[in-house]
Design goal:
alpha/beta; D-Maltodextrin-Binding Protein, domain 2; 3 domains; Rossmann fold; 612 residues; globular; six-stranded mixed beta sheet
């Protein structure tokens, strides 16, 4: 039990890196970025530097405010000056570094100020420090900006449940999750069963908030959630019931939002997913035609055909309150603390808090009135939430995560590992590790995220694996990983690079085998790691093979009797065929993960397995 408890505590403190910004992070890789300090700030000169580690969804805003501050009289203190310098850091990733060791060479300067997405991360950090016999580091803090957790739902589905006149909450989610009729009970059999999207609470702030709200809903409380509450059989049954409707988890909400947006264009969004626990800001962004919250240069937003509405759970919800935490850390001196407070005063000014609204957040300063874009026309309600929940104590938070690891929906996953000859290339000149060395290490480390009853198998692929020309071998069958864990580790470790890369053939075979073994009570998926393009010795039919493959994969997500198999490809190294792997992911309504820098593979593989 102690090992499991520490596993929960460690994982919640590890938001992984590798992608662009968004509400929880963005698109093709993992959680919100760990990005070094913006070089555009220039030389601070003799000023007192206030380094800030802020969650990625607000880095653009904080950069803008820091530049305004640095050029203003507010940055002048006596004969000296203050220089604010933000850097983007994943909330949980920063918590890990603060609790253990912050390597400035790799991670950038140690922060004076930490602003995670939610105060919940502060509670977990302080608990981790307390368990190590260290004093708390995250002090009491005021919110800089806020956004509440909501249940995002396509407007027609919400209206079928009585929206906006009928209050809706987790109790209704539970009822739908357990209904054999699904949407047919509400006159819409064409929508199929109720399908829920939730992010992994060990990685995502919205996932963590949803888990807290779900537990409160089960108990009928709004404050004082206790370990005894979590151990109540009724609470456990409630949690298991809600989790049974999950299509898959994941480290970021944009996986669901981007797929929703894409299927909306195709006319299939109502059969992709029914509801997702996200932050209010995400609903605003989605309805504006910007599902991941990031507009790339030249990208034009286009409103979806079917908008989302934000349901504020009737049992209560939480704010992602983005606290401004001046760290009580040994490396923070008095001058830096004074400078941090000066910058805090500046960003709380009404004119600067109004900038928060431009980004779809609610101002932290109560004197600044709500307005555009937080209006009903954008699918949100400025008068909600009417009931707020308290963040549980740190010990309850850790227990809640441990309980979730037991209650979450089980998985049936085939790991498909590329062992082609190109995997022998040196990926880390300093250590001499090859691509395959790094991939094996990542896969072995990620195995600890599975729970014992998850069914996991290992398939390797390359050409000419046998005299008969086999292109893949199942070295470990898909079976409960608990009794197979050591065997799985050993078999992964024993692999070595061989021949060519029959990508299309192994994807087809792996998909068809997963369909044959489909278990409707589990998350059914394939994790595919490849470092190259399709190379089966016959380039003449590559285009035809790919078209037929994508059509096959797409059919699995359609119809009342669909057997959805999610394929999560990892594009490993710059030689991987990222466009093709992205197309494979989109055909199965999942996500592609980009490990073009092979040294990021441990973090990326961990993010992939967070889907289960």
């Amino acid at each position: 039990m102690m090992r499991r408890r520490w596993a929960a505590a460690l994982v919640v403190l590890c938001l992984v890196a590798g992608c662009s910004s968004g509400s929880d992070g963005d698109g093709e890789a993992s959680g919100d970025d760990d990005v070094t300090t913006d070089e555009g700030f220039g030389d601070p000169g003799d000023c007192t530097v206030v380094d800030l580690a802020v969650s990625s969804e607000k880095i653009a805003l904080m950069n803008e405010l820091a530049r305004l501050f640095n050029d203003s009289d507010a940055a002048k203190v006596g004969d000296g000056c203050i220089f604010a310098r933000p850097q983007s850091k994943a909330s949980g990733g920063a918590a890990t570094l603060l609790a253990t060791e912050w390597d400035e060479a790799a991670e950038g300067p140690r922060p004076v100020v930490w602003s995670p997405a939610s105060s919940a991360w502060s509670a977990v950090l302080n608990q981790r420090l307390a368990d190590d016999g260290k004093p708390a580091m995250a002090t009491e803090a005021e919110p800089f900006m806020q956004t509440p957790l909501v249940i995002a739902m396509p407007e027609p589905m919400a209206e079928a449940l009585g929206y906006p006149d009928t209050p809706i909450g987790f109790e209704d989610i539970l009822s739908l999750a357990q209904s054999e009729e699904g949407w047919a009970a509400y006159g819409h059999p064409e929508w199929g069963p109720f399908r829920l999207g939730k992010t992994n609470p060990n990685f995502s702030t919205s996932g963590l908030s949803a888990l807290i709200a779900q537990a409160y809903a089960a108990t009928g409380k709004t404050t004082g959630l206790s370990i005894e509450d979590l151990n109540d059989p009724a609470t456990e049954a409630f949690g298991e019931g809600v989790e049974s409707a999950v299509v898959h988890y994941g480290d970021i909400t944009p996986t669901f939002l981007n797929n929703w947006y894409r299927t909306d264009r195709e006319g299939t969004s109502l059969t992709y997913i029914s509801a997702v626990a996200v932050e209010e800001k995400s609903v605003i962004d989605y309805n504006a035609g910007n599902p991941d919250g990031v507009l790339e240069p030249g990208e034009r937003p286009r409103e979806p055909r079917i908008p989302l509405v934000a349901i504020y759970p009737k049992e209560g919800t939480l704010f992602s309150d983005n606290p401004y935490v001046v760290l009580d850390a040994p490396w923070v001196d008095d001058a830096e603390r004074e400078g941090a407070r000066a910058f805090e005063t500046f960003i709380q000014r009404p004119e600067n808090q109004r900038k928060v609204l431009e980004f779809g957040f609610r101002p932290g300063n109560p004197d600044v009135a709500l307005g555009e874009p937080i209006v009903a026309a954008n699918g949100v309600d400025p008068d909600e939430p009417s009931t707020l929940l308290d963040v549980p104590s740190p010990p309850v938070m850790i227990e809640l995560l441990e309980k979730w690891s037991e209650q979450r929906k089980s998985a049936r996953v085939l790991l498909v590992l590329d062992v082609s000859g190109s995997m022998s290339e040196i990926a880390d000149p300093d250590s001499g590790d090859t691509r395959l060395d790094l991939a094996k290490r990542a896969a072995i480390e990620a195995l600890d995220q599975f729970k014992p009853e998850d069914e996991v198998g290992l398939r390797i692929f390359t050409t000419d694996l046998s005299p008969d020309g086999d292109v893949f071998i199942d070295v470990v069958p898909v079976e409960p990983i608990g009794p197979n864990l050591e065997r799985m580790r050993r078999e992964i470790q024993e692999q070595f690079p061989l021949n060519a890369t029959p990508l299309y053939e192994v994807v087809r075979a792996s998909y068809e085998d997963a369909v044959e073994g489909y278990d409707p009570a589990r998350i059914n998926a394939v994790v595919l790691l490849s470092d190259g393009i399709n190379d089966d010795g016959d380039e003449s039919d590559d285009e035809r093979q790919l078209d037929e493959l994508l059509q096959l994969l797409s059919r699995g997500t359609e119809g009342e009797n669909a057997r959805p198999i999610r394929i999560f490809p990892i594009a490993f190294s710059g030689d991987a065929d990222l466009p093709t792997l992205r197309a494979i992911a989109e055909a199965t309504n999942s996500a592609v993960y980009d490990a073009s820098d092979p040294k990021t593979i441990v973090k990326v593989f961990t993010a992939v397995v967070s889907n289960f």
